[in-house]
Amino acid sequence: MHEKxxxxxxxxDQGTTVSKLNELIAxxxxxxxxxxxxMAALPEDLAPGTRFVSCQEGELVLSTDTAxxxxxxxxxxxEIMEQLREHELFRFVWKLRVKVSPPRFRxxxxxxxxxxxxxxxxxxxxxxxxxxxxxxxxxxEKLASHVRE
Length: 149
What we know:
Largest sheet: 3 strands, mixed
Protein name: DUF721 domain-containing protein
CATH superfamily of the largest domain: DnaA, N-terminal domain
Number of helices: 5
CATH class of the largest domain: Alpha Beta
Organism: Marinobacter persicus
Order of helices and strands: HEEHHEHH
Number of domains: 2
Distance between the termini: 91 Å
Helix content: 40-55%
Number of strands: 3
InterPro entries: DciA-like
Radius of gyration: 31 Å
CATH topology of the largest domain: GMP Synthetase, Chain A, domain 3
Strand content: 5-15%
C-alpha cells in the first residue's frame, strides 16, 4: 500500500523561514550590487532600458527594451566585458548574451491632425465643382472651408 502524503504547515519552523528570508535578502543585495557594476560599465547611451539579468558560469545575461539597442550592445560586448573583468565578481566572464524584452505598455501619443493647407482646400473646391452629386458637393465644399490661415 502507498503511504499517504502528509501536508505540512508552511510555517512549521519559523527559524528556517527567517533564515531563508535572510538568504533571499542577501542574494538580492548581491544582485543589486552586481547590477550597479554592470550598469556603470555600459556606455551611457545604452544604459537606459537595459537591465542585468544574471551571471552564471561565465555567461553574462543582459535584457534590453529594443532590438537595435541589443545589437549595439553585442557590437560593443568586448569593450563591456573588458571593463567588467576588472571586478572580482565578473573576473571569469567570457560570453555576453542580450535578450530583448520590450516594455509591456507604452504611453500612446495622441495623433495630431495636420491642418488643411490652402492647396488642399483649393483642390477640394475644384473637385466639388466637377461633382454631379449635390450632397457630395456640399460635403467637399464644407471640408474646403476648414482651411486654417
